[in-house]
Amino acid sequence: MKTSESALREIFKPAVIVGALGYFVDVYDLILFSIVRRTSLQNLGFSGDQLLTQGIHLLNLQMLGMLAGGIAFGILGDRLGRVVLLFSSILLYSVANIANGFVHSVESYALWRLVAGFGLAGELGGGITLVSEVLSKEMRGYGTMIVASVGVFGAVIGGLVAGLVQWRTAYFIGGGLGLLLLVLRMSVAESGMFKQTRTTPAKIVRGNFLALFQNWKRFMKYLRCILIGLPTWFVIGILVTFSPEISNALKIQGEISVAHAIAFTYLGITFGGFASGFFSQQLRSRKKVVFAFILFTLIAMVAYFLAAGQSAATFYLIILLLGFGVGYWTVFVAVAAEQFGTNIRATVATTVPNFIRGSVVPLTLAFNFLKSKIGIVPAAAIVGVLCILIALWALRGLDETHGKELDYIEPI
User: Fold this and answer.
1) pLDDT at 139 over 60
2) Helix axes 106-120, 14-43, angle to 10 degrees
3) What CATH number does the domain containing 181 carry?
């Protein structure tokens, strides 16, 4: 049995601390576009409904970049190492976000959101994979909890920074923080489990993304890992990103700011991430906690759509609760990492969250299509309920992974 001191020493390993700070910068940069969407597009000469249509276009490009980057960085992480993955990812998205601060046309803005999305794709999955492999099976849930709690607070800071400085400066700050983090990354050692796959005499296939689709059982497990996260980016990508437009339709008393909505959401996610990680350790179950948080998200969504005529303060409180509900985000990424062997673990852990982020593309397309037919509020409600039902179906078919031994090779 570990003493409290030895347990704390294990939990606060450099991989966990730097992983948490890395995710902090990742979330700051990832969510920054949603915060400065309206201001930046207005500065580039857009107005009215163009702020919504151009915003969806740029958001979709960012998410498509993350989809491609998730695959590329996942394969890189399983073939060359988790640390190489993290270095490459943060360097690319830091440079791209600095470039975002210099754009003067929507075309260049679109290009650099695509590149930034590609670079951002590797941070969370790579960090969770490394933390899962360097901590013991008894402690890794706490490591994930710390990464989640510290990391998502980056969006809160992003909202505050965007409210204090010009939007271009906000991008410069994000890129600069990423470059500073590269220096800290030098203290992080490679995963011992990954090293073993490189030194074992037997030939091991590493980072084979297509292997996830060559076996029906493996494919269904992978698909379910992706689908349990659908509610998270429905909430962030639609209910929060387009909260000014939805709140107008709901006749909320007072103006709703995207920057404030993002800050409240991620404040909720910070507490939700801590709570989901803590309870998954206490209950010794990832599945029970994810199930409970999905149901909480559904309840908060119902409150969101029934908030017509309420005050802005009440609407922000509901957004905070939505954030708490989807705070199971990093637990779900840990679930995905724990479902597969060391030789494709980084590929899975890096692609799963980015497929979910990429799901914003079909979700916003469905939302936009339904909006023109039945109105903005019913459209969002229908898409949201479908996301919840699909996530619950996916969760039902996954194995419990709390305490699972991870030092094994996936047969390919």
Assistant:
1) yes
2) 170
3) 1.20.1250.20
